[in-house]
Design goal:
The structure holds 2 protein chains of 2 kinds. By secondary structure, chain A is an all-beta fold. Chain A is 0% helix and 49% strand. Classes of the chains: A mainly beta, B mainly beta.
Chain lengths: 114, 115
């Protein structure tokens, strides 16, 4: 009974490159959330998706960031033309039914931009 | 503006004592409040959820209170153990949250339990 799986665990990119972060939710969960955590900062909500739909992207930066959760396969958080300020831990969480529920988090992807 | 405030200073206590962590919030009307534990380099792990119509909730050595008048939740760990050392996060949602759908988290309080 695997939990939320995120990969890669660590990702190093140079400025201007693209970063792709993957998240496979727990079995039976169709709701996925992405959060970003900076050192000494709290978890900041980015986006909430259900299968093939973006429900709430109010926490996503307007440019360079996008997310998807296709019918088949993992959810992807994509950051284009990364900058040093994108360096952070990115966490994915899932839940079976959406709002008003506890979230199950993955171990995160640590993105470092050189 | 909306805020979720937790003690930024680490809480150091001796093994066997009760640890009490505080979560205060402003400009939220949460339907519920959650507590999570986060260890270094790991994702948060859910501990307890308490709803607005509940005053107190317990789970083994954990106890949470929720006072919607004071806009405060207290999180207690009784008979604390060194293994309880971690960062504890408060999270809440409600119709006034930044996102109508997602949990919003405080920065967390670091707890260190020494033998």
């Amino acid at each position: 009974n695997a939990g939320v799986m995120q990969n890669p665990r660590h990702l190093v990119r140079r400025r201007g490159q693209e970063a792709r972060l993957r998240c496979s939710p727990m079995k039976g969960h169709s709701h996925v959330y992405w959060y970003r955590q900076l050192p000494e900062e709290g978890l900041k909500f980015m986006v909430y998706l259900q299968k093939e739909n973006i429900i709430d992207e109010s926490g996503m930066p307007k440019e360079r960031f996008s997310a998807e959760f296709p019918k088949e396969g993992p959810s992807i958080l994509r950051i284009q033309q990364v900058v040093r300020g994108d360096s952070a831990a990115y966490f994915c969480a899932s839940s079976p039914q959406g709002v008003n529920e506890k979230l199950f988090f993955g171990s995160g992807t640590q993105l470092s931009v050189l | 503006s909306q805020k979720i405030e937790q003690n930024s200073e680490a809480l150091n206590i001796q093994e066997g004592k009760t640890a009490t962590l505080t979560c205060n919030y402003t400009n939220y009307s949460p339907a519920y409040l959650q507590w999570y534990r986060q260890d270094p380099g790991r994702g948060p792990v859910f501990l307890l959820l308490i709803r607005e119509n509940e005053k107190e909730k317990r789970k083994e050595r954990l106890k949470v209170t929720f006072d919607t008048t004071l806009k405060q939740s207290l999180f207690h760990i009784t008979a604390s153990q060194p293994a309880d050392s971690a960062t504890y996060l408060c999270a809440l949602d409600g119709e006034n949250s930044n996102s109508g759908y997602a949990l919003n988290f405080g920065k967390g309080t670091s707890l260190l339990v020494t033998p």
